[in-house]
Amino acid sequence: MNPEPHLHQQLNQEQEAWVDLMFLGGLGEIGLNSMVFETSDHLVVVDAGIMFPEDYMLGIDMVIPDFSYLRERRDKIAALILTHGHEDHIGAVPFLLKELNLPVYGTPLTLALLREKLKEHHLLEQSELHLIDPRRQLVVGPFVFNFIPVTHSIVDGVGFALTTPVGTFIHSGDFKIDATPTAGEVTDLNSFADYGNKGVLALLSDSTNAERPGYTLSERDIGCTLENLIREAPGRVIVAVFSSHIPRLQQIIAIAAKQGRKVLFHGRSMVTNVGLARQLGFLQMPPEQEMTTAQLKSLPDHEIIIVTTGSQGEAMSALARIALDAHKQIRIRSGDLVILSSKFIPGNEKAISTVINNLYRLGAEVVYHEVADIHVSGHASQEELKLLLQLTKPRYLIPIHGELRHLVKHARLGRSLGMIDAQLLLATNGDRFRFDVQGAQRLTRIEVGRIFVDGKGVGDVGNIVLRDRQHLAADGLFLALVAVDATSKRLISGPDLISKGFVFEAEQSDMLDAAREIILEIISRALAEPTQDWLEIQIQIGKALRKYFFKLLERRPMILPLILTL
Amino acid sequence: MNPEPHLHQQLNQEQEAWVDLMFLGGLGEIGLNSMVFETSDHLVVVDAGIMFPEDYMLGIDMVIPDFSYLRERRDKIAALILTHGHEDHIGAVPFLLKELNLPVYGTPLTLALLREKLKEHHLLEQSELHLIDPRRQLVVGPFVFNFIPVTHSIVDGVGFALTTPVGTFIHSGDFKIDATPTAGEVTDLNSFADYGNKGVLALLSDSTNAERPGYTLSERDIGCTLENLIREAPGRVIVAVFSSHIPRLQQIIAIAAKQGRKVLFHGRSMVTNVGLARQLGFLQMPPEQEMTTAQLKSLPDHEIIIVTTGSQGEAMSALARIALDAHKQIRIRSGDLVILSSKFIPGNEKAISTVINNLYRLGAEVVYHEVADIHVSGHASQEELKLLLQLTKPRYLIPIHGELRHLVKHARLGRSLGMIDAQLLLATNGDRFRFDVQGAQRLTRIEVGRIFVDGKGVGDVGNIVLRDRQHLAADGLFLALVAVDATSKRLISGPDLISKGFVFEAEQSDMLDAAREIILEIISRALAEPTQDWLEIQIQIGKALRKYFFKLLERRPMILPLILTL
């Protein structure tokens, strides 16, 4: 359904200023964050993130938002604003820039991380990247952005105040309130408060932890646990952590320094991100604390900390290979302490468990968040969300970034502060609001969707292909090939049978003979007829085999009956 | 490797009594529990459980232990002892009984649940089932079993003391220590203590929660939370819980009674298990509290509690269908409260999240363990495990039931009580210990494994088939068919191309044309030669297409080049 006609009517009805706000992704799901602010002749996009594939998305590498809405309005698009450098906010930017050449605005680290992506996609040269300076406002058509530093599990993240003809929108970014972060800036509560005093039309706020009561702990609160663990470690320490978690990395470096351990950053993304963070001055590390892979042999074990990727059990990660004892330079030996300094992201538990068990098998001691407080979230919990509401005093609250359950819980926090239902705009992907002098109204939804990226293919794997993969994955494939002479009405060759992922053929000769019989019987019956509808006959064979296999094995392989008529 | 020769040597060396203990499953993994006690002429099996398939086991319904070791000793097998009725302890019994007709011993509920399984497998008539009576000892050859009631998340569970010529083994069963369970018996600590005083050779103890400090809460501790939630619910209450969790069901019935709500048990396994538990007197419910599906329409909402399955987001469960608004009798309306009274089992989080979000979408309020204390574990935490060690004072501790990380942590608890490494027997599947007057020694491992059950096929899906399914799942299939006249050296037909789960063909005509070219070129080159090795030519085509597709799409579909020579 195309919402355009409806929209135009309204344009004619109301001549005064308006701003439309709509969501391309990230509301009703984790990841895929992207939203749009639009006026009659300007459009601004905020974030363009990816989502990691769900289990049923077989073979899919990543998911990006459907940008059709932007494609159809390419001439209006004035800017892409990036709030921080996490994959779920910048991961889809290269795919967007491939189609639409629009100016991108971000903080130094965010753009540095984006540049690495654009290089991989050979898009760096043609891209127009602009640095955000929190001390200077950014004017894009009718939109005036003032960026507000926020604390998160990556540094250099921002929220923003967006002043428009109809009022001021506040976007929290991904944030937590931590007065003592180990790196990066403290969430600028005063700025949020200033806007609160001046009057805020709508607050768009991070709902990731809306289910968590209380306050999210400070990054520093885990320092003591980490430090004790590392101090008591008799040998080498291997810490697995997200390579973009600069505050955590800074904390580990500090602990290492105290305890006279040198630090080896290991794994491609780890080395890249650490390099960028150090160049930009976000990560402080004296050169004498660095060590090389070569020094793994020369240095005594108790002077070594290896910081690597793989805290989510990623199959290709350094840690996964170390756990399988398949890593060239790093072989686990008893005395090694491995710390997984991150949470178990839902869907990854089994992979992480396998890594942990493999490490124990090799004789390492392993510590993870289930058994020690070695991780804190980067997202605000309920009390912090309430605090932001209290400071900004918005007319409307729009919970963003989260599954529906998180958005609902976040809206309830607004109610607990005395907001009424009309002020709580519960939205999911595709929802669109119009803001004007009267306030907010819901417009017809826009079409949104998810695009699958598989290898170099973007969007060419759709539901049909996925259904086939699911079918093949569940019961495999059975292929039957016969060749018939259409003129002499004779079977020339076959049935040749091929099965893949269905049964272990060597043990199923009886079944294969029976299948051959079923096919021959249908073919010969058909050849006896005056005319043959070969397509129909293929369907008959498919049906017969399907029935036979299910009766015998209760399996439904994909059946491909091929009749070659010559 | 076949351990037999080695074993025989040792038999000749030592003539005095010995008992071998070995593990077919459940040590180094969750589920698949099965172990063996063996003397020179008797063998007893304890439990025969299933494991639910891992993500990589595509299309597999369940996993059972490899019973080869038992098959080879069928004449020695004197009994199968079942500790309780959970799938990971009795699920594989039908598969075992199909091959080996051995007497099975279990408590009333355990056997009742087993009977349901045996019926489905048409094995009930020929099976020899014996009731365990905790007050009477069971003598099987040299083995004397005394069963000890234990509290767990199912009722009628037991551990046991096994007296043998070489000493007494204690098996904890799946247990927790709960002085106030809502159904079933209290763990009989006094019996454990008695054996401790008499002297215990080895304690085999449940390691599932060995990572959890402190004590597991009593089942009663969640009653208050559940009661408040249900009292404040304005409309219907739907509770999703494991159908075998009789103590939880009893608790819900009690709360319903207090608040004047009738209870509808819904879902096949729920109805069956509740029926069995009531027959056997484990579940008390006055008839007037029952309601029928028909009464869903007639009764006022605030008088209804629906107890159903699907707390793990199982796709076919009643709750999943309710959440999709695809359930005939039960349509969610605002005011409904849904309680998921169970933990999120690793691997199921995403499915559960989807159900929760769908329920919110339909207007229900949803409560789950992340947001309220509505579930307690059925397994002992560290302090309880230490308590059992303290009471039984075993010479050896053998942690059972758990991933390696759990077994390791459990062994450490033993060390914390002053046991030395020689007393802590850390074992995984396949490990075998010999116990004699000197004590325990490790023998060569036995061969163990996992058998995949797919539909009616047991063990016919092996790693080759799984690898093919993984390959097909990731990138699908590409099939190229040509027919050539071997005598006239002419191409008669093709190339015909078929792809499944690879690309959306309609959008890939250029690629398909190119593939056709690649094939034709190889074929024509081959036909120009004096002789043709068609197998080799198929391999060439496969290679060429593989290279082309990867360059173009970075995908590796399974490629089936078929050359029909006529």
UniProtKB/TrEMBL annotation, chains A, B:
InterPro entries: Metallo-B-lactamas, RibonucZ/Hydroxyglut_hydro, RMMBL, RNase_J, RNase_J_2, RNase_J_b_CASP, RNase_J_bac, RNase_J_C. The keyword Zinc applies. Zn(2+) binds at H84, H86, D88, H89, H152, D174, H401. The keyword NAD does not apply. It is an enzyme of class 3 (hydrolase). It is found in: Cytoplasm. Binds 2 Zn(2+) ions per subunit. It is not clear if Zn(2+) or Mg(2+) is physiologically important. One of its GO terms (biological process) is rRNA processing. Its cofactor is Zn(2+); Ca(2+). Keywords: Calcium, Cytoplasm, Endonuclease, Exonuclease, Hydrolase, Metal-binding, Nuclease, RNA-binding, rRNA processing, Zinc. Its EC number is 3.1.-.-. SMART domains: Lactamase_B. Pfam families: Lactamase_B, RMMBL, RNase_J_b_CASP, RNase_J_C. Gene3D superfamilies: 3.10.20.580, Metallo-hydrolase/oxidoreductase, Ribonuclease Z/Hydroxyacylglutathione hydrolase-like. GO terms for cellular component: cytoplasm. SUPFAM superfamilies: Metallo-hydrolase/oxidoreductase (SSF56281). One of its GO terms (molecular function) is RNA endonuclease activity. The active site is at D206, H379. Residues 31-226 form the Metallo-beta-lactamase domain. Ca(2+) binds at G59, D61, D454. An RNase that has 5'-3' exonuclease and possibly endonuclease activity. Involved in maturation of rRNA and in some organisms also mRNA maturation and/or decay. Homodimer, may be a subunit of the RNA degradosome. This is Ribonuclease J. It comes from Desulfobacca acetoxidans (strain ATCC 700848 / DSM 11109 / ASRB2). The lineage of its organism: Bacteria, Pseudomonadati, Thermodesulfobacteriota, Desulfobaccia, Desulfobaccales.
